[in-house]
Amino acid sequence: MIRFTTAGESHGQAILAILEGIPSGLNINSEDIDVDLARRQKGYGRGNRMRIETDQVNILSGVRYARTLGSPITLLIYNKDWENWQAVMSPTSVDIDGKYLQKPRPGHADLVGLMKYGVNDFRDILERASARETAARVAVGAVCRELLKEFRINIYSYVTSIGKVSANLSTIDKKHIQHLTEMSFVRCPDKVASKKMIQAIKQASKNGDTLGGKFKIIAENVPIGLGSHTQWDLKLDGRLAQSLMSIQAIKAVEFGLGTDFSKVLGSLAHDEIFYSNKNGFYRTTNRAGGTEGGMSNGQDIEITCTMKPIPSLIKQLKSVNIHTKKPDKAEAVRSDVCAVPAAGVVGEAAVAYELARAMVEKFGGDSLEDMKKNYKSYISRIKGL
Ligand code: EPS
Question: Whose CA is closest to atom 6 on ligand 1?
């Protein structure tokens, strides 16, 4: 079974992930992982921290001569900024900092974490709650993406809205979306909307404010039958949703028509079934977003995620000093103004991980070769139906 865990604080020495269950014989190069790490760092609206970091992965285990061994893969990314935080983040027993953060930010983990973990400095909480952790998830996703590529599964994402600005994709050819997205500073394929989004981020920044938005993730060529209808925790849509909802600041995950399902009649909500000798079973719509009964149905997986505005604001919200209990303004700390473009890249990684996990579950095998054999025989059986 594929699984991973991450470790590391935002301003600690490093962020790392241990990824288990990737079959042996898969080609892995750190440069391929670094491409996704760099994509995650970009996007208009990122703060000064991104000028300090140039994320690069160090593969510490599980790969030999650029091929996976089937053993746990350790992926480590050093935090360059740690040099500036060594005293604050010191693991020794001496408190050399003494500057406790006392005014929790509404919307952040600060207050709840502080109460739950019984600490009196919410730096102890924010260091791990920070979205810096998503660098490790993207490294994991990049390895999973390499596995999925062996089965021609392609995952991409693009921003559909930031604040009140929405993209208009009606005139954009689907085959240009990926290219246009990577060219845009906000990872939005609509050039006009991209400009307006940048303006909106500039304005929010000027006001000491932040902005959220939406992004869409597409997974193409996913085989029919990943996940299962037989048990709640095997359902593919549920698993994808959990993976995506766990990304910092994500507040909603929708498949296909998503919340719009509530507005349409049943006769217009589903994807009717057709058959031709050439194509077998096929659909002409994808309202479901690629899953039915908790299983992939062979259509593109289409998911929209909503990200809330980042809760670290220069325009400080009302809070309470945790020591004096007196009303005060929330801490204003260095942060991003908008991280929706980066979140799309993290979303791709979350989807890559869950799909790779479901692929290994379905096609098994300790080696990529075994997995491919199982895949081939399954696909030919399905085609014969
Ligand atoms: C984050 C705050 C900012 C972001 C950080 C997430 O970091 P800092 O406190 O060092 O300015 O830049 O994101 C990253 C470092 C990253 O790599 O994405 C937060 O509080 O969540």
Answer: 131
Rounded to whole angstroms, how far apart are CA atoms 97 and 267? Answer: 63
Mean pLDDT, the chain, as a whole number? 96
Residue 249 CA, closest ligand 1 atom number? 21
The whole-angstrom separation of Cα 78 and Cα 13 is 6
Rounded to the nearest angstrom, the distance between the alpha carbon of 100 and the centre of ligand 1 is 19
Q: What share of the chain is helix, strand, coil (3-state, %, to 5)?
A: 35, 20, 40
Measured in whole angstroms, how far is the alpha carbon of residue 181 from the centre of its chain? 16
For residue 154, give the 3-state DSSP assignment. strand
Q: Are 149 and 368 in contact (CB under 8 A)?
A: no
Q: What is the mean pLDDT of residues 136-148?
A: 98
Neighbour count for residue 317 (Cβ, 10 Å): 14
Other CB atoms within 10 A of residue 129 CB: 17
Q: Which residues line ligand 1 (CB under 6 A)?
A: 10, 47, 49, 126, 130-132, 134-135, 248, 312, 333-336
The pLDDT value given to residue 322: 93
Q: Which two tokens stand for residue 308?
A: 């809330």
Exposed / middle / buried, residue 261 (Cβ in 10 Å: 0-12, 13-18, 19+): middle
pLDDT reported for residue 56 = 98
pTM of the model: 0.97
3-state secondary structure of 23: coil
Q: Is the per-residue pLDDT at 368 higher than 80? A: yes
